[in-house]
Amino acid sequence: MSSTNRWGPFLIRTGLGVVMIIHGVGKLMGVGPAAMSISDFAATIGGLGFPAATALAWLVALIEFGGGVLLVAGLFVRHAAIGIAINMLVATVLVHLPQGFSGYEYTLVLFVMALSLVATGPGQFSLTHALFDGELYWPTVDG
Predict the structure, then answer these.
(1) Alpha-carbon distance 49 to 39, whole Å?
(2) Residue 98 and residue 1: Cα distance in Å, rounded?
(3) Do the Cβ atoms of 64 and 23 come closer than 8 Å?
(4) Where does it mainly reside (predicted)?
C-alpha cells in the first residue's frame, strides 16, 4: 500500500471527525463555535415538519458527537460515516440547498467526505487496524 493510500483515510477521518465533534458538542452542551441548544435545534427540526423533533435533535447531536469520536479513533468508521452521511445529506437537501451554492457547499463536502470513508474504511492508521489487524465486520458481496 502506498503512503498516499495509508494517509488518505486518516486525514479525511480526522478532519471530518473534528468538525462533527465540534458540532455535536455545540448541540449537546450549548458551547463552542457551533453552539445551539438541543431545544433550539429541536425547534428548527420541528419547523421543517419532522415529528418527534426533540428525540430527533438528540439523535442528530449524538450521531455528530459520537460519530466524530469514532472517526478520530478509527473504530467502526464505516458505520459512523453512514450516520454522518445521512445527517449531512438531510441537512444539505432540506436546510442548505434553498440557500444556493454558498449555502450548501459545506454540508455537501462533509457528505462526500463521509461517503469516501464508507468506501475506503478506516485506513491503516486507525485503532481498527491496530487492534483487529484490518477491518471490523463489514458485510461484503462475494462475486
Answers:
(1) 15
(2) 42
(3) yes
(4) membrane
Q: How far is Cα 72 from Cα 80, in angstroms, rounded to an integer?
A: 11
Low-confidence ranges of the chain (pLDDT < 50): 143
Nearest one of 3, 135, 12, 23 to 79, comparing CA atoms: 135
pTM, rounded to two decimals: 0.88
| Rounded to 5°, angle at Cα 29 from 105 and 88 | 25
pLDDT confidence of residue 141: 53
Angstrom distance (rounded) from CA 84 to CA 113: 10
